[in-house]
Structure prediction request, 102 residues.
Amino acid sequence: MGFVRRVPKSIGELEESVTKLAKNKSHINSVKVNESNNHIEVDLDWSANNMGGDAGKDFYLPIKRGKLREAKEIVDRMMGGGHAPVRADITSLFDMIDPQGS
Prediction:
């Protein structure tokens, strides 16, 4: 399955998505940095993919040039902790997303 582009419209939308992912991280196969196209790619497991609709599709976030490593560090920190992601990390990640990126 290919990756679909996701660009949250607001910090609140990103926070909701990241919080949901953190709670269901057992359904994430991997979060990878694709340096060739400046994407953070989220590969969900089979059961999430078969959930139906856009929510279960593997997706990517287009990241601004020069911000990919920082974005990956934030994502790793958010997904690695046993607590809800902090607002400062979500705000920083939102600022790194390239709304024009493909």
